[in-house]
Amino acid sequence: MIEPKPAVQPGSAQGKTKKRRFGGTEAQIRSALKFYKVMAYLTGGMLLLLCAELVVRYVFGQYLFAGGTNAVTGQPFGLGFADAEPQGVLGGFNLSVAVLIVHGWMYVVYLISNFRLWTLMRWPFLKLILLALGGVVPFLSFFVEKKFHAEVEAELASHPQAAQRY
To answer: Which of 51, 98, 135, 152 is deepest in the core (most CB within 10 A)?
Structure first.
């Protein structure tokens, strides 16, 4: 009969550190880190633009339009702000709504980059939540990106054998 062994972390009783394993090779991790960095800056920039657009819309009651016809004068409208209610531009392209849509889809791609980095690094779930918050809290994506970029670089440097899988 086989004797059951206690479920103890290897090396915890002897004072050794737990062996670190990554979910991919170093090249895969660096690729995911680069993709995350690009998406963090793009999404953070779009979020700041979105915040400015929301302030203009709800504080000043204006939309940003490109093209169309001025609803009051009937003259062609180039690029600029117009009244939201009543509608100030007819037939123009509403850039304010475009900012909302672009940020929304960029955030989806940003979440994919977060998930890819998170799975390759085998981090706890709380870090994924913190990464995801970077796309919805203004300026947070810049700070979180800097912190996690340094953390990934430090982990790769301190555990050079952990990423070698093949």
So the answer is: 135
Quote the CA–CA distance of 105 and 34 in Å, as a whole number.
Answer: 19
Report strand pairing: 69-70 vs 62-66.
unpaired
**Chain-centroid distance, C-alpha 124:** 18
Closest CA relative to residue 35, chosen from 89, 98, 116: 116
Q: Is 82 helix (H, G, I), strand (E, B) or coil?
A: strand
89: which strand partners?
A: 70
pTM of the model: 0.79
pLDDT surpassing 80 at residue 13: no
Cβ count near 54 (within 10 Å): 13
